[in-house]
Amino acid sequence: MLQVASVTHRYDVSRPWLHRVLAGEPRQHLTAVDNVSFRIEAGETLSLVGESGCGKSTLARLAVGLHAPSEGTIRFQGETLSSVRAQPALRRQLNMIFQDPYSSLNPRWRVRDVIGEPIRVFGLAADRVAQRRRVETLLLQVGLAAEDGEKYPHQFSGGQRQRISIARALASEPAFLVCDEPTSALDVSVQAQILNLMRDLQHRLGLTLLFISHNLAVVRHMSDRIGVMYLGRIVEIGPADEIFHNPRHPYTRLLLEALPDMTRTGRPRNPVGGEIPNPIDPPSGCPFHPRCPLANPRCTREKPALLLHGKTEIACHAVEEGRLPDQLCANRGCGQVACL
Amino acid sequence: MTLLSVRDLVVEIPSRRGLARPIDGVSFDIEKGEILGIVGESGAGKSLTGAAITGLLPNPGRIAGGMVLFDGNRIDDLPATRMRRLRGRRIGMIFQDPLTTLDPLFTVGQQLVETMRTHLPLSDTAARTRARDWLDRVGIPAANRRIDAYPHEFSGGQRQRVVIALALCAEPDLLIADEPTTALDVSVQAHIIALLRALARERGTAVMLITHDMGVIAEIADRVAVMYAGRIVEIGPVDAVIRHPTHPYTDGLMGTIPSVARRLDRLRQIDGSMPRPNGTRDAMPVGCAFHPRCPKVFDRCRQERPVLHTAGASLVACWLA
After folding, report:
1. Model ipTM over 0.90
2. Residue B48 lies in a domain
3. pLDDT tens across A152-172, in order?
4. What are A123-140's pLDDT values in tens digits?
5. CATH number of the domain that B19 lies in?
6. Is the link from the previous residue into A239 a cis peptide, with omega within 30 of 0?
7. Would an 8 Å CB–CB cutoff place A204 in contact with chain B?
8. Do residues B127 and B116 lie in contact, with contact meaning Cβ atoms separated by under 8 Å?
């Protein structure tokens, strides 16, 4: 469905021209996405997880064509994204759900106009009556009432607004949806409603999803495959079960280890040190090496490539050289997540 | 020994639409060295409870009933100046957004020193040494150098740690932490959690931890109180509340949280949303506030409001418990 090949995206974060000239500074670039490749097959859900600043949201925007990549190509159903965007029939098959249900809906429009816009733009309804009927169907599909179309966004709660966002995204009859943190602004009980709704809709409509989240538990619930990102690179990508039962990249292990979990009350933890480095000036070699307990001189020099190990692709010299300790965690009683 | 005791706390906020009661009869105790987690959805009254205890209710909110006892003395009716002295010295606070707590015009060292010298009999140099130790303890690398840096020179996670150092440097007996890790990434969050737990264990600091993250609560709290629509619906030891929840709301809430340990086809969901006491969206229901969403509702729930009573190791406000 979607093929991302060696995509790099840089943001220009230089100071204003005069500052640069006066201080004799060069232009500065932030590499938000660094040589990332993956594919998404029709009907599956791929999730990208990582901490803030790892480039997952940039990748989401690249995938729907809101940004053009600095390098590399993205193909949707075999065609490059730039040509997809020139063809309305293809373009309408790509859509996006945003994180913030408060800022992503126009407060001056009635909900029926918000949802009806894609239908009108792509000419998916014969006339206004057909459009109205379609909007009502969509509202019912996402668990709202048909009369809700007459209201304005501010009359709804956060969860209901996210339902409206979903209805709007579905209005163009997409095959592929990019969801950027769709539930992180919501309370857990509402989050469960939205996640259930998204899975139901995916089954019913055969949607392909690219799901972006920092919440590993949400990702676990939603995904067929998972890609873990760190400083603009994918460090581990593979089937969801594999990532959770047998995480091998030290960063994936760190993430799973650090995660608070309800099922493990009073668990002792030994947090792994360090923070995400400044992405403007990333570390040499493997970007994770300053925090990695397994780093050796090679890691500080050479960027590891994403290589296939079993069912997962991992970018780690330690995994490649077989230096990775692979005992399962016994002391925590979870028996699942291997820790370092 | 009970350090903080909140009895039938009622907070009212007058507005054009009438009188809202965002907190309606909340009671709980915190022992010395204990971590009490307060959980609930946004609008349940968690943060407002913290604000009411510290005398920082936003205008025009006011305490309309009940009392707050700290170390055996009433503090809800203290004059502002005495309350201010108590705050900072004996009650420390951490808020969710680290940027608004720090003064951008002073170095973190100056802010720590000022806080300590206000509350403790310390010389400037002694306070500075302590400030450095605190930065070190909360995990700021190269504290020696960083003590003279300004807040904007720190990353978000480090700023939150500075805020924690600031709240702790006067060595308070009670720490009220309102969503201290919500803005942080998981690896940084793990540090903060470990730090809070160490404090409670080593110094005997009592912690009131307000959060919506059940995972965090499960890891560090001793007891947990679940709030719904301005009241506590269940309070008890963390294991009991999380593993064997009694109140239908707590039970439902636990089911809605996805876990990394297992994958379910569907999450359980609680339909509808919490009534807001401000009356804009849904008016507060008569009887039990949860009854319109409750799967086990019966006649009595629609008429009479349940009070907290003992059920096993916990206190539960439900007619079925």
Report:
1. no
2. yes
3. 998 888 888 898 999 999 998
4. 888 888 999 999 999 998
5. 3.40.50.300
6. no
7. no
8. yes
